[in-house]
């Protein structure tokens, strides 16, 4: 049974030079950069797009769950993801008080993502932000809210799920990612979530124990 109980915390972010906020957990100052300009990180936004823009496909197996069976897909499947650049690139400089292994200066690029699985569980289109703190790797995280999922994904018990967390990683070695559904539980002022792993492909670098091969 691949289930985990995790905590959900609110995250706030400080605005930057563009008057906007950096996505994620780390406060950063933002400045617009040209696509071909070499950033302070030693690579350009164009380099990041070379890794990530366009169509990507990967085969995977849905993670079975006896406690919370879901559909309409199971077993072997394929995911198809297409990224299209949609706006100005920005350099995010993490503020001094936020410096940590998890808060690093990075480039941000707005993109439009289309995502589908081979038998209709997901058929999504959304805007998101691609991030890169090193030239050979770019990542994207996005929450598909339960009430807005365009595909047919559902728990067979008809129990509502709050969202599906998507992670995507693009590197010179390939295309990786994961899907995980969350069912929120409230108790007083605290909120927790039951995490239901759905799928992973490639070799995600995040700490996803259930994706280990």
Quick structural summary:
The protein is mainly beta.
List the helices and strands and how they pair.
Elements: E1 4-7, E2 28-33, H1 45-52, E3 54-61, E4 70-71, E5 76-85, E6 89-94, E7 106-117, E8 123-134, E9 137-145, E10 154-155, E11 163-171, E12 174-187, E13 190-201
Antiparallel strand pairs: 1-13, 2-6, 3-5, 4-10, 5-7, 6-7, 7-8, 8-9, 9-11, 11-12, 12-13
Overall description:
With 213 residues, the chain is mainly β. The chain has one domain (4-205). It contains 1 helix and 13 strands, in the order ββαβββββββββββ. It has one helix at residues 45-52; strands spanning 4-7, 28-33, 54-61, 70-71, 76-85, 89-94, 106-117, 123-134, 137-145, 154-155, 163-171, 174-187, 190-201. A hairpin with a 2-residue loop joins β8 (123-134) and β9 (137-145).
Tell me the span between the first and last alpha carbons: 16 Å
Number of domains: 1
What is the averaged pLDDT score? 84
- Detail the poorly predicted runs: 1-24
Instruction: Report the helical percentage.
Output: under 10%
Structural class: mainly beta
Number of helices: 1
Written as H for each helix and E for each strand, in order along the chain, the element string is: EEHEEEEEEEEEEE
Q: What is the molecular shape?
A: globular
Strand content: over 45%
Largest beta-sheet details: 11 strands, antiparallel
| Radius of gyration of CA atoms, rounded to a whole number | 18 Å
């Amino acid at each position: 049974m691949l289930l985990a109980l995790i905590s959900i915390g609110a995250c706030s972010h400080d605005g930057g030079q563009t008057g906007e906020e950096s996505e994620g957990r780390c406060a950063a100052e933002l400045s617009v950069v040209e696509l071909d300009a070499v950033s302070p990180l030693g690579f350009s936004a164009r380099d990041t797009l070379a890794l990530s823009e366009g169509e990507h496909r990967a085969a995977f197996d849905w993670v079975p769950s006896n406690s919370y069976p879901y559909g309409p897909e199971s077993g072997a499947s394929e995911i198809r993801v297409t990224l299209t650049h949609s706006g100005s690139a920005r350099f995010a400089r993490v503020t001094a008080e936020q410096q940590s292994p998890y808060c690093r200066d990075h480039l941000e690029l707005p993109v439009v993502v289309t995502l589908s699985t081979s038998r209709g569980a997901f058929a999504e289109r959304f805007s998101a932000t691609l991030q890169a703190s090193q030239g050979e790797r770019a990542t994207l995280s996005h929450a598909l809210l339960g009430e807005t999922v365009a595909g047919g994904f559902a728990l067979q018990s008809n129990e509502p799920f709050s969202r599906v967390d998507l992670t995507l990683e693009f590197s010179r070695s390939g295309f990786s990612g994961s899907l995980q559904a969350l069912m929120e539980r409230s108790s007083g002022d605290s909120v927790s979530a039951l995490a239901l792993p759905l799928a992973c492909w490639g070799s995600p670098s995040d700490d996803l124990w259930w994706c280990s091969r």
